[in-house]
Design brief:
mainly alpha; about 80% helix
């Protein structure tokens, strides 16, 4: 008798449990905790706070010329940039990529073809594509800037360095007289400058893509309980992503007009996304297959870009540089 009761209990348990789990996987939008008026107030606060945080974050490293402590040559700048790069890496791995997995594995999508792990595939292809753009753009700008004379100059500079360090000034004068303008004492510095310019532009692209998506999602939501924690989290992310991007822009030494455009573009992207979300909130259905697929693919692509840029072009480039390799305290810090 006791055995039959246990058998009945376990049978009932294993029959009811799957139905309870499947019961949570619905494609209907959640109607609970919706308050359009209260949500709109939080959205306006989000627009202002994210705009201000992004503008301050991206401007602080750029103003390093006026603030000696934030100069790219100072150790403080390296520590702040490394922390900001860590925030960008965490954004890609912990925030954007899981959202993409959730979107593209939603029960609202048909099993064919979405049983294939598109999230990882798109993120991988995005990272590879970023590598290709990074390499080709750097090569193109280097060739356009130096032309066929880059290699002879590099070889001659190496030869001069091997003979004597005093010939560095002579090389600079010779280069200036030959070409009519100065590239610096060693062409590598100009190559590094071009590299920083490519990095800053590709990094901004990755940040902008996910900022638009998260902005639209926040703007379209009508749940104050969903929006409230997002305001603080996105303000924090926007500030430190701005610090990372601003550090790259500062090292790229763009002209004032280009710096202003890039700074404004970064600062306005998420607030504009929120405004778009507010505008389409009446017709936007975040659980519709189209919205899930578009958000999932763009989030996965953005995650691939952010992860590649944070690891390869920000953290690895800085930690493998002579400045950090020769400074154990700075590496630990």
């Amino acid at each position: 008798m006791e055995k039959s009761q246990k058998l009945a209990f376990f049978t009932l348990f294993f029959i009811v449990l799957p139905t309870l789990v499947l019961g949570d996987c619905t494609c209907e939008p959640e109607d609970e905790d919706r308050d359009k008026t209260q949500a709109l107030k939080y959205k306006i606060v989000a627009i202002v706070s994210i705009l201000v945080a992004g503008a301050i974050g991206v401007c602080l490293p750029i103003l390093g010329k006026s603030i000696p402590a934030l100069s790219p040559e100072r150790n403080v700048f390296s520590v702040i940039k490394a922390f900001a790069a860590g925030v960008i890496l965490a954004t890609g791995f912990i925030h954007v990529l899981p959202d993409a997995f959730e979107n593209l594995t939603s029960p609202c999508l048909s099993e064919t073809p979405w049983e294939f792990p598109f999230t990882g595939f798109v993120a991988m292809m995005s990272a590879i594509g970023t590598l290709m753009v990074d390499a080709f753009a750097t090569s193109y700008f280097r060739n356009a800037h130096f032309g066929d004379k880059a290699l002879p100059e590099r070889n001659s500079s190496v030869g001069d360095e091997e003979k004597s360090g005093e010939h560095a000034d002579h090389l600079h004068v010779h280069t200036h007289a030959t070409h009519g303008h100065s590239h610096g004492s060693v062409p590598t510095s100009s190559s590094d400058l071009l590299r920083h310019r490519v990095i800053s532009q590709v990094l901004e692209l990755g940040i902008v893509v996910h900022s638009v998506i998260i902005g639209i999602s926040l703007g379209a939501s009508e749940s104050p309980k969903t929006i409230k924690p997002l305001v603080a989290a996105l303000t924090f992310h926007q500030f430190f992503e701005g610090m990372g991007l601003g550090g790259c822009i500062a090292q790229a030494k763009f002209k004032a007009r280009a710096v202003t455009i890039m700074g404004l573009f970064f600062s306005l992207t998420t607030p504009v996304g929120i405004a778009i979300g507010i505008g389409i909130s009446n017709v936007y259905d975040e659980s519709s297959p189209t919205a899930l697929i578009v958000e999932g693919i763009f989030n996965a692509a953005s995650a691939g870009i952010l992860i590649y840029m944070a690891l390869v072009d920000l953290l690895a480039a800085d930690f493998l540089s002579p400045k950090l390799q020769n400074n154990g305290k700075l590496q630990i810090g």
